[in-house]
Protein: Fungal-specific transcription factor domain-containing protein
Organism: Aspergillus arachidicola
Amino acid sequence: MTAYDDSLNPFRKLTVMTLSNAVVRRVIVSHASEWMYYHGCMSLELNLLHRISAIKSLRQAIGSITAVQPADGDSSGRLDHEVPLHPMETVLTAVLLQVANSLFDGWSWSDTRLSCAFQVLCNLDLITHTPAHFISRFLVQRFAMLDLANALLRQSRLHLPLSCWLFKLGTSADEVEPRHQQMTGCPRGLVGLLAQICSLADTLADGRCKADVLMDASQLQEELHKYFSDASTRRTVQVADRHLNSLGECWYWCAYLCLQRCVLFLPTQSPEVQSSVACLIELLKSVPLRCLPGSKIFVPLCMAAREAINPEDRSMLSKRNADMRIVYPSRIRDETMALIEERWVGT
C-alpha cells in the first residue's frame, strides 16, 4: 500500500503491465490469498496451493534468466508502458513482491530474498544511473525502502551502496510520477541521509577510527538540521498532505534516533534520545490509523518503541500496533514489537 494514492501510482501501472505475466501474476495472487486467509476468507489448503504455485513459478523464472541479459545500452529507457517487462525486470518485480510479503509473513527468508533482488538490480545496471523508465525507478525505490527497513530494525548491512542514484541529493527524479514520499512515506531527501547513517554505523563496527566517525556524524547532524529547516519552509498546509507531512517528519526523527543510538552511542535514557522519542511519538499520534499514511508507520513505530522508557508511551505504542493488526496485519511488525515488549519487562 502506498502512503498516497492517485492516477500516477506505479502500483496501478505495474498491475496492468503484469496481468499478462504469469510469474508476477501468481505472486500477486499468492499475496492476496495470504490476506484473505488471515481474515478468514480463504481456506489454509487453497492459500498454500497459491503460495506453492507462486514459489514454483519464481524458481523457474530465476533459472531461466541466467543466460538472458539486457541489450547493450538499453537498460534505462528501453520500455514503454505498453511493452512487456524484460525477463530480468519480471524476476526483480516478483522477488521484490516476495520480500515485501515477508513484512506480512515474518522475517524468515527476507535476507535471502533481498540478496537475490540486489543481484538482479546489479545485472540490470539499475544502481549507479537513474533509470528512465518508471517501472525500473519504482523497483529500485521499493528495494531501497525494504533494505533500509531491514538495516534500521535489524542492524543489518545495507545491500545498496552509497553510490546508488537514489541516495544522491539534488536530483530531479523525485519530481516525477509520483514523489518518493507519496509512495513510501519517507521524503526523498531523507533516504540518502538514512543510508549514510546506516553505513557510518557499519564502518564503526568494522573498526574505523572513532574520531573520524564522529567527524562524519557531526556533518550528518548538520545536514539533518538543514534538511529539517528547508523542509519546514516547503511544508504545505493542505489537509490532504497534512498526514503525509507528519509521516515524513517521523522518518526525520528515525534518522536522528539512528544517528544518536547506532553512531554516537548515546544511552536510551539520555535526554537527547528521549527528546527524539517524544517528538516521534507525538507525530505518530497525529497520523490517523485509517488513512493511507497510517499504513506506512511500521518502521517509525518500532523505532519509537525500541527507545521508549515512559510506561504511558509504551502502552500507547503497544495499543497502536494492536489496532494496526486489524487493518494492516503484519507478522514482521508483530514479531518486532513482541521482542521489544520482552525487553520492556523489568525496565
Q: What stands out?
A: Confidence is low (pLDDT under 50) at residues 67-82.
